[in-house]
Amino acid sequence: DARVTQTPRHKVTEMGQEVTMRCQPILGHNTVFWYRQTMMQGLELLAYFRNRAPLDDSGMPKDRFSAEMPDATLATLKIQPSEPRDSAVYFCASGLSSGRVPGQGTITPTSYEQYFGPGTRLTVT
Amino acid sequence: GQNIDQPTEMTATEGAIVQINCTYQTSGFNGLFWYQQHAGEAPTFLSYNVLDGLEEKGRFSSFLSRSKGYSYLLLKELQMKDSASYLCAVRDSGSWGKLQFGAGTQVVVTP
User: CB distance A117–B42 less than 8 Å?
Assistant: First the structure.
């Protein structure tokens, strides 16, 4: 049963500390998304990657947030320094988008749903 | 950008039918998704519409009218486990999969 995994599931940290969240997308998926969910703002897209290349990170505060995909099986989201307003649930999601995927040829999925990981609940005090 | 509107909350009794409406205004459109999210859990995919019309999947159906910028999710034979938030999401033009989510509709199913 393929699924997206995220670590840690919960993180409590003090203001000013660095936080790193990790995501393992479903094997074979070529797009990875980072979302943040709060009661006030709902589900917001922070950044996303296609074939490991960053496509859009306009939703992310650039001064403190950074997102990377060091390889096809790992995506990271880092906050440095963290602030109380960063407290939220951070979801990673993966999916397939059409196009050419290195090592897999041309892909045309029949649908484009995103599969969400269980989330990292971050509390910054 | 996208502007997506859906009601905040709806209440219905077990066994009934509920229809959740979603209206959107977009600069580009390439599909509309519905996701279900139980409290404390991740969103899970329910349905996808890219052409006008009705898509049926068991007790859940989703409808799309692109000319009206309108979709609805129909939940039939409601069960207690259907109590959850239902998120409408619109995909930008192109096939890169970027979604913008509405705020979600909290459905409360009562006995």
Answer: yes
Q: Please list, in sequence order, all residues whose beta carbon lies within 8 angstroms of the beta carbon of residue B47, skipping any fewer than 6 positions away.
A: B33, B34, B55, B57, B60, B61, B62, B73
Tens of pLDDT, residues A22-61: 999 999 888 999 999 999 889 999 999 988 988 888 889 8
CB-CB: which of A42, A56, A111 is closest to B103? A42
Beta bridge partners of B26: B2
Closest chain B residue by Cα to residue A121: B40
* Inter-chain CB pairs, A–B, below 8 Å: 54
Tell me the pLDDT tens digit for each residue of B64-78.
999 999 999 999 999
Give the integer Cα–Cα distance in Å for B9 and B96: 31
